[in-house]
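--- STAGE predict ---
source: upstream dedup step, 1 unique chain passed
mode: sequence only
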Amino acid sequence: MRNITEVSCCAASFFVIWAGKWMSKYGSRVQLQARFFLPGYINHVITLFS
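--- STAGE serialize ---
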């Protein structure tokens, strides 16, 4: 079984890459939402696995 920290970091990095592609596709319309959403998501992942 893999380390939980390793898995959560992999999932977070995958989400960041996906979000970057999605952002470049849809542009600045969702930039404001993502600016508030991303830190909350990362914080949620950290608290979930800590």
